């Protein structure tokens, strides 16, 4: 997903756009930005500072600066809940644990190159079960007897699910088992950071109530989810952009600008 | 004799980009070139009987297609790649190989190599894994066997005199490498981590005198030049197993960081301790290779002969050299990197992290699987780490 958040001086959100990235993602960032500008009723020149973050951050030719999604997510989450000590973000690519102290990122853990413990795991298995990924959460809430899914590998988990189906295990019990598998894997990763409440959960997977419940059970504490869990990284980037701009202006320095070409990335040319 | 026209860092890059080229030239001059795996084969003994020691590596860019028939896929990808190259005939230019019981997988490679790769000469040094006196005696015995093996290969007697001369030549080279590393102490460093790695790889591909000559050229050039690395916020130390290709270091140095020091075996580990000249030179060699080479493949305790119960005392005695490096090279962050499935280094990571945290040095652990393709997630980790420590 490619997201744009534009904020004003009062930290009011003037535009929020979430768009499918797809294989053409190098060409897409400027389109999403243009949509954001339209929503905000602003021209590109009126934007004080642009921060690019996430996997595609190196392919945004109109950004003034790149900051990793780790720092941006932390900033976004602190804005949502200033007392946060641990943020968990589960997206389509990876899962991250962010340890935060006094509103600052102090340590982090990231899942490795493996789909287990990410949104991709749920996408693949939802497809195998013939379900929509957005329906998984509510389906799992019906389960009274979740089945343990012991394979951490997505491909093996798929085989395991199919054999459970052929044993006649109800769908909701399998889905609940999948949620527990992803939650226990991510909990294992973030436990290395020594968990302290408050815990905030963001990313696309945070929209799944089943995973939220499973994560609370695995961590043994309440987990807070912002209203728009997909936008915390982009919002954090916007807030950091505002801070950098104000700090630079206060120091009487010119704002350090990038090339700012609001056009397709020309990475391959 | 082949005329070498290029010098210094230009020559380094030529050798780095085509390592076998010089080895093949040397063979055409009737020199015998012997490949060695990891740091444990004793290069001084090879030099002493006029053999050219040539450090063997895998190739990150070459897909592993043959080795998986002979080795499981869940072991060290560097060693899998090395065997793969052997099976594909890419080490045919060597006159032989010397390997050692470096780690459990490393100990399997020589057997496979002898069976499935055509080799003119091969020798295996069964290096023990502790530093007790009994182990040192065993190591000396292994070196006595190695001596006999080299003498029968070359028909030359490996006299104490010859061995002393070779040790002196290699110690001189060690001093030159340390001199080169001193040029990384200023801020910004005069030579980048990427360039330093290329220099060390080149030196490990050449006869000792030729390598030392190249080092002198590089040191002179680096001292004089004005286009060294730019100043960056972070000064990093990189720790871990074999790292002999530059993409990872280039990625780190493309961010707001200079890599100013290392603790790896294609770096400081090979050069930071001199070999003591003992009456029987084999004593000094056995002590050096077993006790002074600090690879996690060797188990060492806090108190000699007993495992300390006090965690931090134990860690300090094992890793204080890292603290000293950090002070001398003004390091403000450590990247612990390991190849996937490297058990020796993997087990060491939590304790090294503990030690570094205790001396107030932030660190991050990166695991990678010997490919260039998957650097993007590592880039995010390193950049995130730099943001955290800045």
Could you walk me through the main structural features you see in this protein, from its secondary elements to its overall organization?
The complex is a heterodimer of chains A (269) and B (390). Chain A has eight helices and nine strands. With 269 residues, chain A is α/β, with parallel strands linked by helices. Chain A has two domains: 2-71 and 231-250, 2-Layer Sandwich (Nucleotidyltransferase, domain 5), CATH 3.30.420.40; 82-225, Nucleotidyltransferase, domain 5. Chain A has a five-stranded mixed sheet with strand order 7-6-5-8-9, sandwiched between helices. In chain A, strands 1-2 form a two-stranded antiparallel sheet. In chain A, helix 2 (69-80) packs across helix 8 (232-250) and helix 3 (119-129) runs antiparallel to helix 6. The longest helix of chain A has 21 residues, at 171-191. Chain B is an alpha/beta fold and 390 residues long. Chain B has a domain at 8-157: 3-Layer(aba) Sandwich (Rossmann fold), CATH 3.40.50. In chain B, the strands form two sheets. A four-stranded parallel sheet of chain B has the order 2-1-3-4, with helices on both faces. In chain B, strands 6-5-7-8 form a four-stranded parallel sheet, with helices on both faces. In chain B, helix 1 (8-17) packs across helix 2 (19-28), helix 4 packs parallel to helix 5 (109-116) and helix 13 (311-328) crosses helix 14 (343-358). The model of chain B has no long low-confidence stretch (mean pLDDT 94).
* Low-pLDDT stretches of chain A: none
Give me the secondary-structure category of chain B.
alpha/beta
Regarding CATH, which class of the largest domain in chain A? Alpha Beta
The whole-angstrom Rg of chain A is 20 Å
What's the N-to-C terminus distance of chain B? 52 Å
Say how many strands of chain A there are. 9
The helix tally of chain B amounts to 15
What does the oligomeric state look like here?
A: heterodimer
User: Which stretches of chain B are low in confidence, meaning pLDDT under 50 for 5 or more residues running?
Assistant: none
Largest interface, chains and sizes: A-B, 14 and 10 residues
Number of strands of chain B: 8
């Amino acid at each position: 997903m490619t997201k744009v958040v534009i904020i004003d001086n009062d930290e009011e959100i003037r535009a929020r756009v979430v768009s499918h990235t797809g294989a053409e993602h190098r060409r897409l960032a400027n389109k999403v930005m243009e949509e954001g500008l339209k929503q905000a009723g602003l021209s590109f020149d009126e934007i004080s500072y642009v921060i690019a973050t996430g996997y595609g951050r190196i392919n945004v030719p109109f950004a003034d600066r790149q900051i990793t999604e780790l720092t941006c997510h932390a900033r976004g989450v602190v804005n949502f809940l200033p007392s946060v000590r641990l943020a968990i973000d589960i997206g389509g690519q990876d899962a991250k644990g962010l340890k935060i102290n006094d509103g600052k990122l102090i340590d982090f853990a990231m899942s490795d190159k493996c789909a287990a413990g990410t949104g991709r795991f749920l996408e693949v298995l939802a497809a195998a079960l013939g379900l929509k990924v957005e329906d998984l959460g509510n389906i799992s809430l019906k389960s009274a007897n979740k089945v343990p899914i012991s394979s951490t590998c997505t491909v093996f988990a798929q085989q395991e699910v199919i054999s459970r189906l052929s044993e006649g295990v109800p769908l909701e019990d399998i889905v609940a088992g999948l949620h527990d598998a992803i939650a226990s894997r991510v909990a294992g990763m973030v436990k290395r950071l020594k968990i302290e409440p408050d815990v905030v959960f963001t990313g696309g997977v945070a929209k799944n109530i089943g995973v939220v419940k499973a994560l609370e059970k695995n961590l043994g504490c309440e987990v807070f989810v912002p209203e728009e869990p997909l936008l915390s990284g982009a919002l954090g980037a916007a807030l950091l952009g505002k801070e950098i701009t104000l700090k630079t202006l206060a120091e009487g320095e010119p704002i350090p600008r990038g090339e700012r070409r609001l056009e397709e990335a020309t990475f391959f040319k | 004799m082949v005329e070498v026209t290029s010098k210094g860092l230009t020559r380094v890059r030529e050798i780095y980009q085509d390592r076998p080229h010089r080895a093949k030239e040397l063979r055409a001059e009737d020199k015998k070139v012997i490949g060695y795996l990891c740091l444990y084969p004793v290069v001084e003994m090879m030099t002493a009987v006029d053999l050219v020691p040539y450090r063997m590596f895998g190739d990150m860019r070459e897909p592993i297609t043959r080795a998986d028939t002979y080795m499981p896929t869940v072991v060290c990808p560097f060693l899998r790649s090395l065997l793969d190259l052997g099976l594909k005939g890419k080490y045919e230019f060597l006159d032989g190989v010397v390997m050692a019981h470096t780690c459990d997988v490393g100990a399997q490679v020589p057997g496979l190599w002898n069976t499935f790769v055509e080799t003119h000469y091969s020798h295996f040094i069964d290096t023990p894994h502790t530093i007790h006196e009994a182990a040192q005696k065993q190591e000396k015995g292994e070196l006595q066997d190695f001596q006999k093996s080299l003498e029968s290969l070359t028909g030359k007697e490996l006299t104490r005199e010859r061995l002393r001369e070779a040790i002196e030549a290699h110690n001189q080279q060690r001093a030159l490498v340390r001199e080169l590393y001193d040029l990384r102490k200023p801020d910004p460093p005069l030579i980048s981590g990427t360039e330093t790695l290329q220099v060390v790889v080149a030196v490990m591909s050449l006869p000792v005198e030729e390598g030392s000559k190249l080092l002198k050229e590089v040191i002179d050039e680096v001292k004089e030049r004005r286009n060294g690395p730019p100043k960056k916020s972070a000064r990093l130390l990189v720790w871990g197993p074999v790292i002999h290709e530059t993409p990872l270091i280039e990625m780190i140095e493309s961010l707001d960081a200079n890599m100013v020091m290392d603790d790896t075996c294609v770096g400081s580990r090979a050069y930071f301790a001199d070999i003591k000249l003992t009456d029987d030179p084999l004593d000094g060699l056995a002590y050096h290779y077993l006790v002074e080479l600090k690879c996690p493949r060797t188990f060492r305790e806090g108190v000699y002969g007993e495992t300390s119960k006090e965690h931090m005392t134990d860690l300090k005695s094992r890793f204080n050299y890292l603290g000293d490096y950090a002070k001398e090279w003004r390091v403000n962050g450590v990247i612990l990197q390991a190849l996937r499935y490297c058990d020796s280094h993997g087990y060491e990571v939590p304790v090294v992290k503990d030690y570094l945290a205790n001396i107030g040095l932030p660190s991050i652990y990166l695991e990678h699987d010997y490919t260039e393709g998957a650097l993007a997630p590592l880039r995010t980790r390193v950049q995130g780490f730099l943001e955290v420590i800045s």
